[in-house]
Known about the structure:
Elements: H1 7-11, H2 23-34, H3 37-149, H4 152-169, H5 175-189, H6 196-210, H7 236-251, H8 267-289, H9 293-310, H10 316-330, H11 341-358
Amino acid sequence: MNQQATPAEQDKPAPPASAQPAPHQNAIVNRIAHMSITQMTLAVILAVFVWQWFDAHQQLNNMQQEVTRRLAEMAGNNQASQVMLKQVQDAMREQSAKLALLEARFADTQDQRVALETLYNDLLANRDETALADVEQLLLIAAQQLQLSANVKAALIAMQNADARLQHLDKPSLNGLRKAINQDLDKLRALPTLDVAGINLQINNLLLAVDGLPLSYQQQRSASVPTIQPPSNESAWQKLIREIWYEAKQMVRIQNTDKSEIPLLPPNQEFFLRENLKLHLMSAHLALMSRDEQSFKQEFTDMQQWLVRYFDTGSPDGLRMVAGLKNLAEASINIDLPDISPSLQAVRSYRSTREIEAKPSTVLPKKVTR
Length: 370
């Protein structure tokens, strides 16, 4: 490797001492000067390799630091995420518990609502059923009042109360019942008025007056005899004679009774006579209740005959009794009562239909045929 110097190089003058490099630099330069191209190429390649290795090592270190930093950040973020996840899980559990509680309360509320609806429907059905039962009872009372006592006023009041009960329910399905009731009400309003209570009061007054009626042989003077004024100069003997004569005239009285004979009855027969007269009045009362006009008039005709035959018809009590019997005998109690059964039948039919609809329909299981 050490080449010998050429003659040209040998002929060159040596540089001055001041221009010569330092020994260390000379050694490096000498080494470089003595290096061949191959050695220089290898040196450059080695230098490049070393520089690349150093740079890669530096990048690797930087990458490791970056990865470490990123891992640390991810670890921190992971911990924060775990904390947040734990908080979210706790909140979810709390919300789940609240949701479960709300669902339980909602289920209880639904059960209570269903129970209340069922109770309300039952109460409503019972209320309607009670009202319909009351309406049927009122219509039955009206029918009985007409049939038994022909009391049109009581029947009107009962049917008006029944219509008011249906009106209070305020249901369109009851309009048919109200229409039937109003038709029967119109029939009752068209009837002529009959004062049954007034006639009963007259009969009761006659019953009370029977015991005070005087008999025929118990007649008294219908008019008082006018008294004569004594003279002012009348002596005591004249006054005594006048009074004796007046009393003697009062002991005997002649009066025209317009009767062929006057029946004389013992006291016990008088009692039965008055009781029989009362029985005739009570029979007339029953005829009035049953609207039997023929029997009603016949009873008062018989009582008038008895009164003329056995009682003093000229007395004030007798005159009042005769007038009362005559007025009652002329009264007309015969009224053609209408038939109000259609409204009662309509209510019963409506109730039967409701009971049939309220019963649950049972479905029979079908047979399986193979």
